[in-house]
């Protein structure tokens, strides 16, 4: 069985310690998508992070593999290695150039969403005025589909996410988002968004962050409750896990250079409190999730789908798309 964590964060620094990745692997995770930058990170920082992460992975080939296919993940799991991919949280690192999508794909970025909480010239964020997908955004969706990259709608506004799901020729995912019906936070997604995601063939992966789970110290049962809601609404094949654990390393300063204002990206009006950061499920929650999913009524097959098989199905389709297009040509 493959366990798939659709989103996690190390410090945005080229010297980030990969010990948390090893902790996830020890807890049973076979593949993790590591964030390499967001809209608040300039391209210089994003590229530095990608270079640093790639160097760390390349320096320890017996422990890590940077993947380009689902087959890479299956082989890595059989060999006892941790499979890693990258993701981008926002379109600003694309510099308004659709051709940048393919460049990032070649560097190991396997999924992207277009807006980190705030609006930009591509897409609308979930903590800003309602904005749909722009004409440039339409071209970006097409570029993501061509590059064989997972189109993600986490952090994206409701209206824009619906536009993206309508525009994409491939399944769309939420790599770390929870049902708004259970917890009324602006980062969570409505039933309409969940149904639209499922209609593309995609997956909604539940985050383990306290604000979005509605639990001060979230655990496996909190995650399972949100998974069960998605499964009941649209079917178990559209539910997954993306715990969004942000691993802090105090010795590394990964603050974006320049005039960075955290209250802009995480506004108090949306419920963020500067001196009260969120808490996260620990990596060991992966050991507890199978039993927690059983407690909400899932059998072993259902749990395997949630823990990895659903995201494998979508990635198999999306990541292989460029090769299929080349063969058709």
TrEMBL record:
<protein>
    <submittedName>
        <fullName>Peptidase M19</fullName>
    </submittedName>
</protein>
<dbReference type="GO" id="GO:0070573">
    <property type="term" value="F:metallodipeptidase activity"/>
</dbReference>
<dbReference type="GO" id="GO:0006508">
    <property type="term" value="P:proteolysis"/>
</dbReference>
<dbReference type="InterPro" id="IPR008257">
    <property type="entry name" value="Pept_M19"/>
</dbReference>
<dbReference type="InterPro" id="IPR032466">
    <property type="entry name" value="Metal_Hydrolase"/>
</dbReference>
<dbReference type="Pfam" id="PF01244">
    <property type="entry name" value="Peptidase_M19"/>
</dbReference>
């Amino acid at each position: 069985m493959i366990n798939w964590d659709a989103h996690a964060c190390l410090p945005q620094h080229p010297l980030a310690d990969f010990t948390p990745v090893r902790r996830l692997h020890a807890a049973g995770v076979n593949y993790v998508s590591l964030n390499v930058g967001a809209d608040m990170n300039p391209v210089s920082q994003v590229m530095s992070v990608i270079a640093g992460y790639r160097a760390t992975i390349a320096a320890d080939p017996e422990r890590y593999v940077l993947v380009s296919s689902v087959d890479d993940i299956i082989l890595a799991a059989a060999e006892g290695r941790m499979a890693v991919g990258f993701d981008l949280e926002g379109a600003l690192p694309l510099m308004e150039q659709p051709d940048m999508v393919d460049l990032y794909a070649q560097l190991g970025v396997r999924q992207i969403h277009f807006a980190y909480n705030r609006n930009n010239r591509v897409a609308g964020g979930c903590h800003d005025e309602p904005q749909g997908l722009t004409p440039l955004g339409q071209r970006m969706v097409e570029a993501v589909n061509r590059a064989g990259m997972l189109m993600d709608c986490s952090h994206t506004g409701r209206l824009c996410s619906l536009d993206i799901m309508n525009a994409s020729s491939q399944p769309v995912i939420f790599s770390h988002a929870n049902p708004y019906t259970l917890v009324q936070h602006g980062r969570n997604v409505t039933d309409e968004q969940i149904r639209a995601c499922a209609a593309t063939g995609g997956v909604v992966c539940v985050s383990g962050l306290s604000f979005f789970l509605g639990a001060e110290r979230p655990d496996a049962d909190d995650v399972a409750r949100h998974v069960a809601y998605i499964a009941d609404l649209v079917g178990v094949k559209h539910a997954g896990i993306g715990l969004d654990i942000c691993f802090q390393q105090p010795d590394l300063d990964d603050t974006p250079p320049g005039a960075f204002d955290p209250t802009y990206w995480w506004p108090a009006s949306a419920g963020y409190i500067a001196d009260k950061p969120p808490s996260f499920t620990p990596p060991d929650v992966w050991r507890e999730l199978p039993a927690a999913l059983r407690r909400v009524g899932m059998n072993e097959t259902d749990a395997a789908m949630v823990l990895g098989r659903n995201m494998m199905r979508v990635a198999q389709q999306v990541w292989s798309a460029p090769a299929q297009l080349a063969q058709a040509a």
